[in-house]
Amino acid sequence: xxxRTRIAPSPTGDPHVGxxxxxxxxxxxxxxxxxxxxxxxxxxxxxxSTPESEKAIxxxxxxxxxxxxxxxxxxxxxxxxxxSERKGMYKDFxxxxxxxxxxxxxxxxxxxxxxxxxxxxxAGRQRALKQEDLxxxxxxxxxxxxxxxxxxxxxxxxxxxxxxVDDMLRGTMELDWAQVDAQILLKSDGxxxxxxxxxxxxxLMKISHVIRGEEWINSAPKHKLLYEYFGxxxxxxxxxxxxxxxxxxxxxxxxxxxxxxxxxxxGYMAEALLNYLGRMGWSMPDExxxxxxxxxxAAFDIQRVSLGGPVFDQEKLSWLNGLWIREDLTPxxxxxxxxxxALNPEYLMQxxxxxxxxxxxxxxxxxxAGFFLSGMMPVTEASFEHKKLSIDDVRRILQFASxxxxxQRHWDRDQLFNGLKGLGEALGFxxxxxxxxxxxxxxxxxxxxxxxxxxxxxGPDMSRARVRFALDTIGGPSKKQTKSWEKEYRAIELG
Length: 495
Description:
The chain is mainly alpha-helical. The protein is built from 20 helices and nine strands. The chain has helices spanning 17-32, 51-63, 87-99, 110-122, 131-134, 138-146, 194-204, 220-230, 260-266, 270-278, 293-299, 314-328, 331-341, 345-355, 365-369, 391-406, 413-427, 431-443, 451-474, 479-491; strands at 4-7, 36-39, 103-106, 152-155, 162-167, 171-176, 184-186, 209-213, 236-240. The strands form four sheets. The chain has a three-stranded antiparallel β-sheet. A two-stranded parallel sheet has the order 1-2. Strand 1 (4-7), helix 1 (17-32) and strand 2 form a beta-alpha-beta unit.
């Protein structure tokens, strides 16, 4: 059997270090067995998927040295490698299951679904919604179909008993069928859900091993059942432990920067970040902490993965990155890496038009542009003193701005300015006063270039991280305040 593994990210946001972590282990397993590693874009969520996000994912994984044998940009014998380009085939598979009595058309509205859940709860039935709850009598289904009402295709699942799922690291797992819902396979817009597309694509692309995060364990029964329904052999499953914050919670951008682009912009070496991800739940036979990609591949054994939640600690990453800088770079290589990182013409030519009008001598450059080459700004509560803003006003502005920035998928200075201007007006601040805390959070001072120009150049990852850092530094809102403010923020219409 030829080993074929894959990574299947969704292009709906910033490229996540968790994606790189799973990609690394899939690539290492494939290389260990002389197999192939495939990259597939799962863009079934057409409202959130963007070409910019897809490009960022491909660029960042390639920057890390995670090369794929088949994918949307390199082709292969099992394409196309974007699910949106495979849309036609999924409906055929879904309707095949309907014809065979293994799936059904569901016309239930969101209101009806809520009523059914409440009815189950009131009756003391602690189980997910099943086909007997959802499937309408034939005459009612035909009436709704004739009326042009939207429907989805759902799979039928057992109501009771357990599903045994074999896992390469965990052995045989038993999962309760009562907690597995009659999963939607085909959405009302004709696009497949992850579950149908994932199974169909893995089969057609001849994936032999599915190495993915443990958050997918609860979906394994649905996938196993779909393989049985179609009469296909199921790939071997391996559920990797999730990356954790230092407080052991699931890695999240609210507590730890999660975008690969953030670490690239911070000046981490790709080799060091990949090395660090390789240490997440795995270790070299000789237990050494510093190793190259090739050394990891040569020594790789999936059975050495530990199921304890690996902690993603930025301080540990920085220490390891320092080793790589000191031990693996000559002075000439160090200079070349610095130039490649931030002193390259492409990056500099974004900054120079902003600072040149303010420069009287070249020694003015560092004070004006230093924040473009820095990490977090050394701000304190005193940095945000303002004659028209209280410290609570500053917290409020930074928190609302942080929520706004987190939602922006198209990072453009005019869009940022208009959105922030509208946000400031909705909160009752003049734009100059509203932007003051952002100037300080982004550049460390209000006496600098346009903050929205600076954010466009720094990019979403660094900009968001600096705003969160500033908010944490001055003490963010209480839980009660956060809840109240978030409700207020959601009520604001920014167009």
